[in-house]
Design brief:
The protein is α+β, with helices and mostly antiparallel strands. It is 24% helix and 31% strand. It contains seven helices and 15 strands. The strands form four sheets. Strands 1, 2, 10, 11, 14 and 15 form a six-stranded mixed beta sheet that branches. It has a four-stranded antiparallel beta sheet with strand order 3-13-12-6. It has a three-stranded antiparallel beta sheet with strand order 7-8-9.
Length: 281
């Protein structure tokens, strides 16, 4: 079952998150790094897509393994066509390098005022007194500009802010189980903090483009503490949820559609689990 996700009321979204926490450790639906996000989206009823609209209830939804040191991707956004000289395949073809698959790639982390050895691209804050963030090339100068409104939309593009859901992880025979234990909502980005975090490399800008594939230009935080600096407001969302017993693994014994509440109830029944999974409705 899928939902018209941007129009799900925020209170209903929050209720679903609380119900998912009560479910306990959920077996991943996809191997690899993206399993944590895919499993959460399916439980929430979000269809997988590559568009830039808010994920659900006008929030930008992100998930993260609680014990992971990996960067947290806040959002992805390309500069507007009017504010860039070239992008996508053209960028990769002109400034890229041949990757291990033989594709021309411009994937790179942009350093402040330091050109990449592979692409020659770098980040500039020279015009940030006017609010502009620039992507430049060591020989060709300014390639693209993010205006103040674009940066704001990049950092906080959803009306109800960014929600980071953290999961504790169990591993069994190389299979992950996620307990979506905590969630924090962030809103009200701080322009001055943004500049400081870029300068101190606590925020990173990553171009993720190769010929034939554009995964977006991402703004990424070094860790959760960076989000507390970047945003003026933070709110813990799941602290009032208690479990009647320690969370237990849920290992689906049959093929199922995780988008339906009936299947989640069937799992608990099959396992003799006494905890209840609240109805989404």
């Amino acid at each position: 079952m899928s939902y018209d996700v941007p129009h799900v009321p925020y209170d209903e979204f929050l209720s679903r998150l609380k119900s998912i926490k009560r479910l306990g450790y959920v077996k991943t639906l996809r191997s690899g790094n993206t399993g944590i996000g895919k499993s959460l989206e399916d439980l929430l009823g979000i269809e997988e897509n590559n568009n830039s609209a808010p994920d659900i209830a006008n929030v930008e939804l992100k998930s993260h393994r609680a014990d992971s040191s990996s960067l947290i991707t806040i959002s992805t956004k390309a500069p507007q066509k009017a504010n860039r000289r070239l992008w996508g395949d053209a960028l990769a073809q002109k400034y890229g390098y041949e990757n291990s698959s033989g594709k021309q790639s411009a994937r790179t982390t942009l350093k402040l005022d330091v050109p990449s050895k592979k692409t020659g691209l770098y980040l500039s804050l020279d015009d940030f007194d006017k609010g502009n963030l620039r992507i430049c090339h060591e020989e060709d100068g300014v390639i693209a500009t993010y205006t103040p409104l674009e940066i704001e939309d990049w950092v906080q593009k959803a009306q109800n802010g960014l929600v980071l859901v953290e999961a504790d992880v169990l591993n069994n025979l190389d299979t992950e189980y996620f307990w979506y234990e905590s969630a924090t909502r962030y809103s009200g980005w701080n322009k001055h903090a943004f500049e400081k975090l870029i300068r101190t490399e606590k925020l990173r800008i990553d171009i993720r483009i190769r010929v034939g594939k554009n995964n977006g230009t991402a703004i990424r935080a070094k860790d959760k503490s960076v989000l507390n600096e970047l945003y003026q407001n933070s709110e813990s969302l799941l602290t009032d949820v208690t479990l009647s017993s320690s969370p237990s693994p849920v290992d689906p014994p049959f093929d199922m559609d995780w988008g339906t509440i009936e299947d989640v109830d069937n799992i608990r029944s099959a396992l003799g689990e006494q905890q209840t999974f609240e109805d989404f409705n």
